Amino acid sequence: MGTGRKSFGAFLFHHSFSWGWKLISISFGDLNPFPVRQIRNRRAYHLEKVRLELTELEAIREDFLRERDTSPDKGELVSDEEEDT
Asked: How do the domains of the chain map onto residue ranges?
């Protein structure tokens, strides 16, 4: 009697486990509104966009640092009140 319950329990576990995989396959494979290829393409597009913006910001930063080094102030801080007068 004990071995029958174990084998039946193993059957139920295996059966429910296979149904779980089938459910995952359907939900993330067949019904998935965002296919992996589309997500990969969008990631590549946005990564390229971010890299372009990063290079632009790096150029702006280099210009700022170059201008700061060549200015006669040599980077002295000026308060807003002194700047207005």
From this structure: 35-70
